[in-house]
Hints:
- By secondary structure, the chain is of the alpha+beta class.
- It is built from 15 helices and eleven strands.
- The mean pLDDT is about 95.
Amino acid sequence: MKENILINGVKVIYEQRIGEITSFCIGFKAGASEEKLQDKYGIAHAVEHCIFKGTKNRTEKEINDLCDEIFGFNNAMTNFPYVVYYGTTLSKDFEAGFELYSDIIINPSFPEEGFEEEKNIICEELNEWKDDKEQFCEDELLKNAFNNIRIKECIIGNHRNIKKFTLDDIKEFYNKYYIPSNCVISVVSSLSEETVMEIIERYMLAFKKTGKVNHDYKYENNKSGLFYSKREIEGARIQYIFPIHSLTNKEIKALRIFNNIFGEGTSSFIYDEIRTKYGLAYEIYSKIKNEGGIKLYTINMGTSKENIAKSIEIIDNTINEAKQLSGYFTNLKIKSLEKSIKLKRALELERSIQLAAQLCTHYIMYGTSIDVYYDLDFNINENFILKTVNKVLQNPSIQVVEP
């Protein structure tokens, strides 16, 4: 893996991978966390949509036709810490794909025509977002658990904001955050580094906007408690969250080791208790969210309305038991769990497009991509794992969505 910086400030991460395809990702630290005013919540995602509406050189239809012609896969995504534009081409078509994406990002025309229709599309996307039971449960939980930070409201924003956005709002956000010094490009390719850099420089050195953005992610402690919402759904959803923004990198690694046995896979503690022993859920799992602006440890499950109280009781008991696992994390057990984590990471990064996205987003959030690989060096003992677990697993916010 090689890291370079162009003379205009664009950061480039390159990794060679043998094969016939090239995956690349162009990202900006321009996600929802940069929205400072509540009436602008959703603007980052709206900009992502409007980028594809046309450029100074191409119409929206020409862009869409070329995307279908050049890419085997392409997409864009707005998260709290970043927005990314990514895709996979045959290596011989990398220049054509990169030229198209650079034109979209550097030269958007933001036409008036079709703008209102695009806002309607975003509103429909928001409706579908809210129709997802698990996503709705998480959104309700974040809204109830926090007072001020951006993650209180979903990335897309709300219908009121979306309908009020103007093209001037779109252009203002774009002009502030879509600048070379705020841009990271990652490329995973069978092409040589020299060839890739020549292509990137050919198009990205035309990106001459200046400016500087000061980024600061805000966190707050959660409001612990049990929150209920009603929704016309089959069954019920339960989600726990525990903030982890105060953890060190080493503590995050310890939490990963613990999570591997607590909530990942069919042999995990909570799966064994909730599904195997009591048959209360089809799926239950825990997950670490460790991104800029959103750092949480979560437990998620679906169950029936009549089993809500029983499920919460069992989860609470399992948490309490897990906090007292003295003698469980032997050196041999830790090595086995480390091996499992590394295998899962290797499988996750096997697809070149996933690797490109990880390299890009890690650099955006942490200023380096090296942790994509080397944050798996553990050197952690049982005492440290249990100390971390007891630090994290206390005073949860719990959301129940019931019919």
